[in-house]
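Dear Dr. V.,

Thank you for agreeing to look over these. As mentioned in my earlier message, I'm a first-year student in the group and I'm still getting used to reading structure tokens, so any feedback on how I've presented them would be very welcome. I ran two proteins. I've put each sequence directly above its structure. The first is here:
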Amino acid sequence: MGDGATNVVVHEPAELGRGGSTAEKGVVPYRMRRIRSHMEIAGRWLDCGCADGSYAAALLEAGASQVDGVDIEPDRADEAARRWAHEPRLSFRAAPAESLPFDDGTFDAVLLNEVLEHVGDQRAALREIRRVLVRGGRLVVFSPNRWFPFEGHGAVLGPVRVGKPVPLIPWLPQRLTARTMTARSYWPHQLALVVGSAGLEVEALDFALPLFTKYRWMPPRAIDWYTRALPRLDRIRLVRRFGVSTFVLARKPA
């Protein structure tokens, strides 16, 4: 999917909120395994929207030779820099995804983990990511999957802000729900088309299941069963399709 995919429509939320970290217990290694099931983690990476740096550190442990992290929030970038000051192959700075402070062709790969749905201009952010990738470099994206029946960012209903996951909103027409949302949400094909519209070639489309470590939406017994069954469920693609996030792997043309 390349530059011809420019006509995809993702309805913009009336209000874009800042994203939080998804580095809850078990989530980071789970998502690293998803990435490694599709590609080797090696070379220099950019963690765009790095939050506290947990994913950047995990990329380094998984095989990256160097990882740079950027976050639009200066306090987050500063926190990450302090937290990982002992590791010279990790560096962090504040910068928006739409204006990255790196030269063309700096990175072998970029991670955009639950970030694209929050940036002010998603197309500008993807163009910047394409710019800083080497030829043949990869982009890894995790973003909300509308097949998952809960809106994890909450909703704004008139003057009322609902902070907890809201059921069924993702399954309703986007033209009706966009005004209630605080982050973009994509059908899987939409996310692939948005990435492709930046001149990147989509190589893989997959999904990530929820781990229910932060929001325990089910009864404790159900969560215990789900946790035990997760390795088996994760091998069933039809089950993964209803995961909390869509995974897209794309390549900058050589």
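The second protein is here, in the same arrangement:
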Amino acid sequence: MAKGNENLHSALKAKNDEFYTQLSDIEKELRHYKEHFQGKTVLCNCDDPRVSNFFHYFSYNFEKLGLKKLITICYKNQEIDLFSKHTSERAIYLEYNGCKEGENVPTLEEIGIKHLQGDGDFRSKECIDLLQETDIVVTNPPFSLFREYVAQLIEYQKKFLIIGNQNAISYKEIFYLFMDNKIWLGYNNNAKTFHKPDGTTQTLGNTGWFTNLETKKRHENIILYKTYNETDYPKYDNFEAIEVSKVSDIPYDYKDTMGVPITFLDKYNPDQFEILGITKTWFGGASKIYPNQTQVSKDGSKSTVSKLNDGATIKMSSPPRDSTYYIVDNEIFIQLYARILIKRKDI
């Protein structure tokens, strides 16, 4: 997983984020949404049909899903034998309306190939015009443009099922959508192996599905069995909430604000919980600013840290085992990864 995350960060930094999703991963996720596609027009607007398994999945399952139309936009390509070379400044888009011979295998004659005036960028007017024709967008957009891509889908009120880096959860623009129940996680959210344009494969950690299509999973309650006590659930030093280090440890009898790991969103049921914010500077609020402090690493080495003022911080009576901790004015603190702030709705 560490290597996968390293690959993902490197790709984002270099804007080298063209990854082709494996057909097995698409089939594994899409099987949960079949009822949403009957009579619908599907758009795959970040896909090279020659190599896109999204195009492969929807064209071969067109009749089975009961689709009305499939539109696929190919960026900067205009000829069928140039699909994967990206040598043209013009793009094409394909319209597929199903097999006419009943063999469920699309032929070249049945795939309507049309030219675009521009390069096929999803933000261009002609691509937005195609977006407005469609009901559901399913694709793997560029990770480096994820904010813009999701913002466009929300602006045009489109249903979608897309792959993204799960670090996007903590982006302010994306997290507000989670809070407002305009986006949520899909069924399968773990590391995946992708194909690259050069024929190689690459495993990316921390990727998953984002959607606004309703699922049964989204309304399943988290089974709670722990009882609240002050020892197991300490309060943050810089915010009025208790720390819950594991989703499975959420107490069933606590009605006030709790901080839980980001993995909570994979099990989040909006009927059971309300999302209040995230602890990246308490979602815009002021967090406590500490004086210069000494950081003590796992091996016992010490270094000076100028300030500790972002996220959730707990004051400890003794150093936590196998953790980096901080000494401020002879008191011990541990700074946690980002926490989602939640509150029970059904208590």
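From my reading of the second output: The first helix runs from residue 2 to 13. The first strand starts at residue 41 and ends at 44. Does that match how you would interpret it?

Kind regards,
E.
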